[in-house]
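Checklist before submission:
- one chain only
- standard amino acids only
- sequence pasted in full

Submission:
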Amino acid sequence: MRTFGSQEYEFRSAAETMPEDRYSFRPVVPVAAGNAATSVGPTQLRSFGDQVKHVACANFAFAAELDGKTPPDNCENGGPNPAKTRAELLTYLRNSFAAMNASLNAITSKNMYDPIEGRYAGPNTRLGLAGTAIWHVADHYGQIVLYLRLNGIVPPASRPNPPELKDYPAH
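Returned file contents:
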């Protein structure tokens, strides 16, 4: 839980730091010979806002799988949630971390090796899925740090006095 809490802080604080007008920022990747453009892949990177939405959807998906529920569809491309604005995305992100925290806190020494099925991290165990969820946030945090730095912004977790997280309204 401590590791996931650290990932939550790093990712959410980075998402809160990016100005609204830069949520559409998308690094440009040159097309190499033989690479075909795809919706998301080597030649088409997600925008900053798309990264935030993807992580939020994935958190809800991992939480659903941990809870034995059906995860949202199409998290690879943002999922079904209609959030678009910075404020909506930050609320969606905050709520996704709350869902993951509740699901992770339900893991016990008695159920941590129970099998989990699901398209996002299955087949797995509860403990294995928890590790995947933590890794997933960390992976995308590493990506959005570059987005911040390409926009001249020092990530909050790299500052001498990191700011507190904000509490966006629930929807």
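Reviewer check: The radius of gyration is 16 Å.
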